[in-house]
Each structure stands twice: as C-alpha cells, then as structure tokens.
C-alpha cells in the first residue's frame, strides 16, 4: 500500500555529513549572508530528496525493457524513490515526472506482480505528495496500465492497484470517459469491489475511494456524465444503508462508510439535485441523519429508512435497551445553582460542558483548516499517537470523522436541493419545541450542544446556517404574538416555537463553546437566524438577551470571532428595521444591565419617550467608531497589523465589518444616528484618506448611507416632523466638509475604479435642497467631475456617473438650467451607444428622468423653456430612445418611458417639420410593438404609460395620423388579454386619456375601444393567479372610469353601438360596476385604481356631478332615427345609474 511517512532524509543525516563552514572575517569583501532553511540546508540548494529523485529518475530513464538485471534495478530504484518524503519544499518539473511515470509503466510487465505493486505504490506516492497535474497522455497511459493490472494480476495486488488508480483519476473523471464503461459500467470492476456483498473490506474501501475521486469535480471542469454519476450515487447510498457485516472490525467499517460519504458528497456538490424524487431524497436524509450520530454516546434508537416531508416532526422511537443517562447533579449542586428556569439552563450547561470537554483537548490538533483534501493525503499511524495509545481513542476519532462526513453530505444536500423542497424536512433536523419530559428529539441542535468533537459541532452549525440562509419567505409565516386558541396547533405557531428553540439552543452553545473556530460558526449561525426570522410577528424578548450576550465577545482575542460578532450585530440592526426592541437596545448606555430583558410593557411609547431626553449616541455606534479609529486594546493579538513602533489598529476585517455595521445602523435607525452626523462624517473622511482601498470603499458607502438617510427624512411622503429632521444648515455644513475633503481624491483615483464608482454614488445622495445652498464652485465641481467620469474607460465608473447625472437632472436648482440639461442630454446620448449593457441601462434610466424634467418644466416654466431647447437635440433624443426601445428589457423599460415624455413634450412647430415626421412614426410604432410584445410586464406597463402620455399632447393629430389606429388597437388588445392586471390597468388608463371625441377617430374605432373596455370589465375577476387577483378591484376602478369618460365625450354617431352594448344583460353588469365606482365602494383598492389611473382623487359627489353633466349633454344631442333609439337606451341607462347612486 502507501509508502511509510517518517522523518525526512535531512533529519537522518549524521553529524559527519553536515557541511563544515569555515570562519569568515567581518569585512566589506565578505560574501553575502545566505540564510539556512528549516532543515539546516542553504535556501536555494537542492535537498537530499531532490537529489535522490533526480538520480533515480535518470537511472530509470536510462533503463530499457531488454536491459540486463532489469528486475533487480527496478526493485532497487522503486525502493529508493518510495523511501523519500516529498512533502517538503520540492518543486519538480511536472513534465519530467509525467514522462518518468509513462516510461516506467512500459518497463514493468503485468506478469511481474511484485513490481506491479511497487510501481502502483510509486505512482500513488509521487502523485499524492508532489501534487502533480497530469497531462492527457500520461493520464491515458496510467489508467490503461492500472485497468490492465486489474484484469491480469492476482487478487492480492488489486488493493494497491486501486489505490494508485484512485490517485490517478482524482478530479479527472470526465477525462477518463473512454475507460468509465470498464470501471463503472455493468459488471465493472469498481462496481464489483464496492458492492455491499464484497467480503474484503479493504478492497471495498479503496474501490469506493476510487469512485469518489472519479465523481470529484474540479473548478472549471465539466461534470461527470449523468449516467455514471447516478450509478456511483446508487452505490454510495446502498453502502450507507447497509449494516456492518458480521465479524467486521468497527474501524474498517468506519473507513468504508467514510469513503462512501466522501463519494456521496462529490456527487452532490456543485449542482442541483438530480438523483430522483422524494423517495430518494428521503432515503439519503435518513441515512445521513443516522450517521450524524455514529458512535455518539447515549444514542440508541431505531432509525427510519426514509424521511418523509411533513409539517410535524418525526420522532425516533426508542429501542428496548435504554441508553445510559448522564449523572444528575447532587442536591447541593441544585441548591447552589438555584431553581426554576435558571437551574434548568445551568443544568444543561453542566451536561454540555461534560460532553464537550471529553475530547476537546485531544482533538484540537485536527481543527486547523487544510487547503488540500485530507482524504487524498496518505494516512499514517502518527495521527493516532495520543498519550493513551488506546484503540478506543482511535475508534472515537473514526466515529467523529464519520459524523463529520455525514454533515458535509447534508450540507451539500442543503445547497443542492430546492429550498421549498427542503422545508418539508426541517422538522427532522430542527426541533419545534424545547425538550420537556421524555427523551429529546435527535436533531442538529443535539450535535451542536453535545458532540465531543469541535469539528463536528462546526459542521453541524454550517449545515444549520445553510438551511437558515434564504429561509426568510418560509419563516415569514411564523407568529406567536397570541397563544393559539384552537384545538390544534397552527403551523405558524410551530414555526415560531422552532425559532425560539433555535435561539435557546444557540445561546447555550455560545456559553458552552471553547473552540474559537466553532464559536465563530455559532455566531455566524445566529446571524443567519436573526437575518431571516420575522421578529415583528413574534413576542418581543428574543433579541435583548442575545444583544447582551454578545457584548463580551467584541473584544475576544480571536479576530474571526470579533468579525462574526459584528456580523451578528449588523443582522440585528438590519432585520425588519426599525424594530421597537432594537430601538430600546440602541438607547441603553454601555454599562446598562437591563439589556437582557424586554417585555411587552416596554412598548414603543417607552422608547419614544426616552428618545426625547436621550442625546447620547448608541453604544453600538460608539463601539464601531472605536474599532475603526482607535488602536487595538490587546496589542499582543497576533492577528493585528503592526506598524513600526506605533500602536496597531484593529485588523482590516474587523474594521471593514465595523464600517458595515455603521452603514446598516444608519440605514435602519437613522433617527438614532443623526445626532452623530458630523462624527460619522469624520470617520468616513478618515477612511477615505487611508491607503487601503477596501477601507476607502466602505468609508464612501457609509457617506452614501448618510446622504440617503437625510433624503428619506426630507421626503414629504414619510411625514417626518421638521423638529425631528437634521437641520438644513447642518446638512449643508456636512456636505461642504465632505466635498472639500478626501472625497475629491477618491473621485479621481483611476487606480481603483470601484472606489470611484462608490464616490459617484455618494455624490448622487446629496439632498437637493442642500445642493442648492452649496457654494457655486462646489456645485460646479460636482457637475464637472460627473460629466468627466462619463468618459471613463471603466464601465462601472461610467455607469455610476451617468446614474448620478440622472439624479441631478431632477434637482429643482438644476432642471431649469438649459445649458445643464443640454450637456446632460448629450452625455446620456453618448452613453446609450456604449457597448456595456449596464451603462446603456443606466443611460436609459437617466434619459427617462431627463424627459420627466422636460414635462415638469413645460408645466412650470412654459413655452420659454421649450423654445430655448434645441430642436435638433430633441430629435436626437427621440431617435436614440427609439433605438434603445429595441435593446434588452432593462434598457427598453426606461427607453419607452422617455419616448412617451418626448412625444408629450414636442410642440406643433416641431411636429410639422418634415425632419420630425419619420422619427415620430418610428417612435409610436416602437411603443406599439413593445405593448404587443412578449417582453417583461414592467416593460409593457411602461409602454402603455408612454402611449397614454403621448395622447396628452394636443399637437398630435390622433384622428388623422396613420399610426393612431395601431396605437388604439394595441391598447384594446392588451386591456382584454394581458395576464398581468397592472398592465391592463395602465392600458385602460391610457385609453381614457384623449380629451375629445375627435381623438378617438371614426365610429368604428370608438366602438372598438368601448367593447374592449366593457369586455375587460366583465372579465376583471377571471384569473388563476392569486397575486393578480388582488389587483382586480383596481382594474375595475380604472375600467369604470374609462367607460364613463367615453360616455362623456360620445356623439350622436356613437349612440347605436353604445345602446346595443348597454341594453340587456351586458348593460346590467356594466351598471353594477359603475355604481360601485361612483359610490367609491372599492375602498383602498379603489384608491389604488385612482393612483394607477393618473392620480385622480375625485369624490363620489364629484362623480355624480360628472354623470349629471354627461346626461344633460346627451339629451341635447340631435340624432337620426337609429341614432335616436340608441340615444334613448343610453339616456335611460344613465338615469337609472344616477338614481341608484343617489339612493342611500
């Protein structure tokens, strides 16, 4: 088998072999000092292993198949090569090693079985220790040779041959496709040796390892063919499901299970689940759950063969022999630790401490991470050299590896299986209630709290973190604000209980954990839980103890623990912000002892009252500022970045995480952070002035969050009292200092485009009212820098600069400046032709904002602004937006918005020019094509809005334009057939925009519009999508308004068609909907319909008044005979409608 690994060759050199160094006088002519390596030899000089390898390799290459004494020479050279340890710093020529192995395989005939075994050992030894990446030729030669040896050689050689083959195919499975049919096909040698019926456990183990290495997928490589992956998966699963054969050593059985687990992990990693349905998944999960507790003390249960998805947990049934219980604390201990809940918690901690301390010290040496797979490295007996030297210690180690392998597989399942599918199995791995009487269920929390191996506990925490990650939508159902009063327990209450149990167990694990690596995983797992749990639907009191419990760890010696603690605090201030419980926690001073309790009595009123008198910054904010700016308290921490003789700051990961927490705090709880606005700005400025680009970037992002928080305060819809806002004078002072500081250097730092990008985003977060009060030179500097950065060669910088200009064009102090509007328009037009889709998308968004500004100026400034703007610039904008409407959807959605605004903005004098005729038709046809296309609903919604916007321009001759028929036809089609109700709403609103009857064209077109709206109203509840059904009331609101608008502008020629529609069953159905609209019986959804229809907020009285005016006008119409009959039906319909609406 594998060669022995012992001391390296230099360690065995006798004293006489050590080179003597003659004394050299100290002088300028003395040769330079050459440092010694760790093995005592000069750095750069070849080691004994390298010399030995070169000598033996040269002699092997000189041998020929017909050489005399060939067998003796090969035997000697193989022994010499196998005796060396190549794990030292030895970097051989890869091509030489490959050519040597190819040449040597041709020297050893398969009939010489002892030489075949030694050659296979040499192949495994060299490839394993030298980490050689073989070329295709060498791979093919060696696979052919080992495959031939399996056919021709005796059974006693196959173990070594398979070991060599497993090393050869490691990560090369797809490249061995021509050999896979022999290895993994029907009656393949690997299937034969890996079968559960194989009596030779060593052959079975090596065959499983070989299959695992074939299934292993290296980064950048194609996956193994699904046929062979499925075959291997079945073998691995059968191995895990099979019981230990009789008279088999437990250690050997553990090694076989380990190999199967590694193979299963290779099959599951790096892709989605492709191995069958619920039955197969349940079998895998059942096997993994059983192996999660392999060798665990006190676990003796009957395990199910398959786990089935269920809303309630599946409890394992106890077998006849009862497991031994942990010793109970004495009465004295119980009295000392107290009673009630506290004693229960301490009792749990005592038991956990006993279990964890058993092997924490003896297994600490295995906790160091390794970049090279441990299961590919050669095992040696030195791994088991502990003070006891007992077989029991070795067995515990192997059991721990099995549990760790099972958890690794479970982690791969959690990442590969669709989240929605995995939710059904949560109850098998996460308890939904605390253990109250009887044996507790065996779950991941059992391992986290009681497994003796810190590495196994860390793996269980990783699995739990993967299950919690992205579970926000699933956990959103959880609720326990009120106790269930029904005879059954609702699923929402079960989920809430599971969240509470996770909090309880992870808090216990936090107190009991001693391994820094595992402690880091506990805190990360808590962060995932906090980020996904719906605390606004749970009874308060979960976050306060956690907040208090984490405080001591912010100064932990291990840097990874400190980083994870900050990550958890970031999750606490991010989740459903602002939470009243977190509001109260932020107000408590650093030394407060009340942070561990929060009851419903601590209502939102209490912290609002305290907010009025508390002016001190939040403790968490002070902590983050000190971590970013102050020297580290414990200067002995080896993780810090020391500087000469000065005091070292916190390590970069800690400072970066502290800056992120500050950003989260500012975003979610700006009212608590605004008192320290200038101080936070100074921290950001300091970060921008440092040399570390990551620190600079986070400093810029913190500034952006501050600016965004100020903007949110000043938005009218947020209704923030002026007394609670940051004073305008302070905002102006803040931005004056920021813009005169290191932000300018960041904007011009071409070596770090990501920093430039973030600095552009910071410029776009300036409050518009504050920007207007900045000095003129500062305003000019901002505009000039942004215009210049739109010509950057980096697409990220260009994208951010174009977006910032799209924000600035909306500023009241800039939007009426024709020169700025023109410069911005030209810049945006150039960006619309960029090759980067990201740049084009932001350019289209900015063009949409610019055209919004044109409409605002047209309404506020009037014709003067329209006349000052260049006709040719408008023409270029129209043509560019038309071209962009054929781009990707994220470009198209804003391009059609810009088209609608431009068609609304153009004046009669411009539309009458010949140069505008063709672009005008192209623009409208682009909108029509987009409305009728299969684009995303957002794009079609914007296109319908754009057509309605264009209809508002009285200069467009809708009655005679060649394109108007297509425009109305497309909207009529969408309002009746589109699956998305919001698109229907916007198309109905567009059809109601024309203000006069002439805009609707001839009688046939008007009748088509009416029929489409009436049909859409009749079918307004026909949908199979519940998400669309919630918009049905808004749709009916808009359709009713549109129908009444058509009645208000109708003429005598329209009466026959209207009368035919309103007479009979169809008319009665329409009247019922119109009554609800006029009476405003749709409630809030009706208001949403008004918003979608253009912001009309008419009252029921105003709607009745409009109906009366329509009725009076229609009665005065002079009609012919057929028209008169239709008119009578319409008038009677309106009279009945008015009568019904006026009834109480």
UniProtKB/TrEMBL annotation:
<feature type="compositionally biased region" description="Basic and acidic residues">
    <location>
        <begin position="1081"/>
        <end position="1094"/>
    </location>
</feature>
<feature type="region of interest" description="Disordered">
    <location>
        <begin position="1081"/>
        <end position="1105"/>
    </location>
</feature>
<feature type="region of interest" description="Disordered">
    <location>
        <begin position="318"/>
        <end position="341"/>
    </location>
</feature>
<feature type="compositionally biased region" description="Polar residues">
    <location>
        <begin position="1096"/>
        <end position="1105"/>
    </location>
</feature>
<dbReference type="InterPro" id="IPR025283">
    <property type="entry name" value="DUF4042"/>
</dbReference>
<dbReference type="Pfam" id="PF13513">
    <property type="entry name" value="HEAT_EZ"/>
</dbReference>
<dbReference type="Pfam" id="PF13251">
    <property type="entry name" value="DUF4042"/>
</dbReference>
<feature type="region of interest" description="Disordered">
    <location>
        <begin position="590"/>
        <end position="615"/>
    </location>
</feature>
<feature type="compositionally biased region" description="Low complexity">
    <location>
        <begin position="319"/>
        <end position="330"/>
    </location>
</feature>
<protein>
    <recommendedName>
        <fullName>HEAT repeat-containing protein 6</fullName>
    </recommendedName>
</protein>
<dbReference type="InterPro" id="IPR011989">
    <property type="entry name" value="ARM-like"/>
</dbReference>
<dbReference type="InterPro" id="IPR052107">
    <property type="entry name" value="HEAT6"/>
</dbReference>
<feature type="domain" description="DUF4042">
    <location>
        <begin position="401"/>
        <end position="582"/>
    </location>
</feature>
<dbReference type="InterPro" id="IPR016024">
    <property type="entry name" value="ARM-type_fold"/>
</dbReference>
């Amino acid at each position: 088998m594998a060669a022995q690994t012992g001391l390296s060759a230099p360690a065995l050199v006798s004293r006489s072999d050590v080179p003597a160094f003659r004394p050299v006088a100290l002088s300028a002519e003395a040769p330079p000092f050459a440092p010694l390596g760790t093995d005592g030899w000069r750095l750069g000089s070849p080691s004994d292993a390298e010399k030995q390898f070169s000598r033996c390799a040269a002699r092997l290459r000189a041998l020929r198949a017909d050489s005399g004494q060939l067998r003796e020479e090969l035997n000697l050279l193989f022994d010499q090569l196998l005796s060396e340890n190549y794990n030292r710093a030895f970097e051989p020529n890869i091509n030489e090693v490959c050519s040597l192995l190819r040449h040597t395989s041709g020297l050893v005939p398969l009939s010489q079985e002892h030489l075949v075994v030694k050659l296979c050992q040499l192949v495994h030894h060299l490839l394993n220790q030298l980490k050689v990446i073989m070329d295709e030729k060498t791979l093919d030669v060696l696979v052919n040779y080992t495959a031939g040896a399996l056919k021709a050689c005796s059974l006693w050689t196959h173990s070594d041959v398979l070991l060599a083959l497993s090393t050869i195919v490691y990560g090369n499975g797809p490249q061995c496709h021509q050999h896979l049919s022999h290895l993994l096909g029907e009656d393949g040698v690997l299937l034969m040796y890996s079968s559960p019926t194989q009596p030779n456990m060593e052959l079975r183990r090596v065959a499983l390892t070989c299959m695992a290495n074939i299934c292993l997928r290296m980064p950048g490589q194609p996956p193994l063919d699904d046929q062979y992956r499925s075959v291997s998966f079945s073998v691995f699963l059968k191995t895990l499901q099979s019981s230990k054969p009789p008279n088999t050593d437990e250690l050997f059985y553990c090694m076989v299970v380990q190999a199967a687990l590694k193979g299963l992990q290779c099959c599951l990693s790096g892709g989605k689940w492709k191995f069958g349905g619920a039955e197969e998944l349940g079998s895998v999960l059942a096997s993994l759950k059983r192996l999660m507790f392999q060798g665990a003390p006190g676990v003796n249960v009957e395990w199910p063969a398959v786990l089935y998805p269920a809303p309630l947990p599946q409890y394992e049934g106890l077998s006849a022999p009862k497991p031994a219980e942990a010793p109970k604390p004495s009465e004295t201990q119980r009295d000392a630790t107290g009673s009630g809940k506290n004693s229960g918690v301490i009792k749990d901690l005592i038991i956990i401490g006993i279990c964890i301390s058993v092997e924490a010290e003896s297994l600490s040496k295995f906790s160091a991470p390794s970049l090279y797979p441990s299961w590919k490295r050669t095992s040696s007996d030195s791994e088991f050299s502990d003070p006891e030297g007992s077989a029991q210690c070795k067995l515990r180690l192997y059991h721990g590896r099995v549990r760790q392998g099972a958890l690794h597989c479970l982690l791969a399942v959690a990442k590969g299986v669709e989240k929605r599918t995995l939710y059904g199995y949560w109850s098998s791995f996460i308890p939904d209630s605390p253990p109250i009487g009887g044996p507790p269920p065996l779950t991941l929390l059992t391992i986290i709290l009681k497994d003796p191996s810190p590495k196994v506990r860390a793996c269980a925490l990783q699995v739990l973190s993967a299950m919690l990650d992205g579970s926000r939508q699933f956990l959103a159902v959880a609720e326990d604000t009120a106790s269930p009063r029904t005879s059954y327990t609702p699923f929402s209450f079960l989920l809430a209980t599971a969240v509470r149990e996770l909090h309880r167990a992870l808090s216990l694990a936090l107190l009991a954990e001693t391994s820094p690596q595992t402690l880091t995983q506990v805190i990360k797992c808590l962060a995932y839980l906090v980020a996904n749990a719906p605390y606004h639907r749970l009874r308060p009191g979960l976050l306060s103890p956690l907040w208090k419990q984490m405080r001591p760890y912010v100064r932990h010696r291990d840097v990874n623990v400190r980083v994870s603690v900050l990550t958890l605090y970031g999750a606490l201030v991010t989740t459903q912000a602002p939470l009243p419980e977190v509001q109260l926690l932020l107000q408590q001073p650093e030394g407060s002892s009340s942070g561990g309790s929060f009851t419903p009595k601590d209502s939102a009123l209490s912290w609002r009252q305290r907010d009025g008198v508390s002016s001190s910054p939040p403790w968490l904010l002070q902590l983050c500022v000190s971590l970013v700016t102050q020297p580290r308290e414990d200067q002995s921490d080896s993780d810090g970045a020391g500087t000469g003789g000065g005091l070292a700051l916190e390590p970069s990961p800690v400072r970066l995480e502290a800056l992120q927490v500050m950003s989260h705090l500012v975003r979610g709880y700006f009212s608590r952070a605004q008192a320290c606005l200038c101080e936070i700005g100074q921290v950001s400025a300091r970060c921008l002035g440092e040399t570390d680009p990551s620190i600079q970037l986070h400093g810029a992002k913190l500034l952006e969050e501050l600016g965004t928080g100020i903007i949110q305060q000043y938005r009218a819809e947020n209704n923030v009292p002026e007394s609670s806002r940051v004073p305008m004078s302070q905002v102006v002072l803040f931005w004056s200092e920021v813009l005169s500081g290191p932000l300018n250097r960041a904007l011009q730092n071409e070596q770090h485009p990501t920093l430039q990008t973030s600095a552009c985003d910071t410029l776009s977060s300036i409050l518009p009212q504050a920007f207007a009060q900045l000095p003129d030179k500062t305003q000019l500097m901002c505009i000039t820098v942004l215009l210049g950065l739109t010509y950057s060669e980096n697409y990220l910088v260009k994208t951010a600069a174009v977006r910032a200009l799209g924000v600035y064009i909306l500023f009241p102090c800039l939007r009426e400046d024709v020169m700025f509007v023109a410069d911005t328009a030209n810049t945006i037009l150039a960006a619309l032709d960029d090759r980067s889709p990201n740049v084009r998308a932001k350019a289209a968004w900015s063009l949409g904002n610019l055209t919004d500004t044109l409409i605002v100026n047209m309404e506020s400034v009037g014709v003067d602004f329209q006349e000052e703007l260049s006709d040719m610039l408008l023409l270029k904008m129209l043509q560019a937006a038309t071209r962009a409407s054929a781009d990707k959807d994220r470009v198209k959605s804003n391009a059609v918005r810009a088209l609608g605004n431009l068609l609304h903005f153009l004046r009669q004098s411009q539309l009458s020019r010949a140069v505008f005729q063709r672009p005008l038709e192209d623009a409208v046809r682009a909108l029509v094509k987009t409305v009728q296309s299969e684009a995303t609903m957002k794009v079609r919604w914007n296109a319908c809005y754009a057509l309605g916007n264009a209809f508002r321009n009285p200069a467009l001759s809708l009655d005679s334009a060649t394109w108007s028929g297509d425009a109305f036809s497309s909207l009529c089609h969408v309002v009746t057939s589109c699956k998305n109700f919001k698109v229907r709403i916007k198309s109905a609103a567009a059809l109601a925009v024309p203000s006069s009857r002439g805009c609707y064209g001839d009688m046939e077109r008007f009748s088509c519009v009416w029929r489409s709206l009436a049909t859409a109203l009749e079918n307004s509840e026909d949908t199979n999508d519940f998400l669309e059904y919630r918009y049905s009331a808004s749709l009916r609101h808009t359709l009713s308004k549109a129908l009444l608008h058509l009645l208000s502008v109708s003429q005598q020629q329209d009466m026959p068609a209207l009368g035919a529609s309103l007479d009979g069953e169809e008319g009665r159905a329409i009247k019922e909907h119109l009554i609800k609209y006029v009476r405003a019986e749709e409630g809030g959804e009706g208001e949403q319909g008004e918003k979608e229809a253009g912001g009309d907020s008419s009252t029921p009285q105003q709607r009745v008044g409009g109906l009366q005016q329509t009725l009076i006008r229609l009665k005065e119409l002079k009609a012919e005979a057929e028209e008169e009959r239709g008119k009578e039906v319409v008038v009677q319909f309106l009279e009945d409608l008015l009568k019904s609406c006026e009834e109480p």
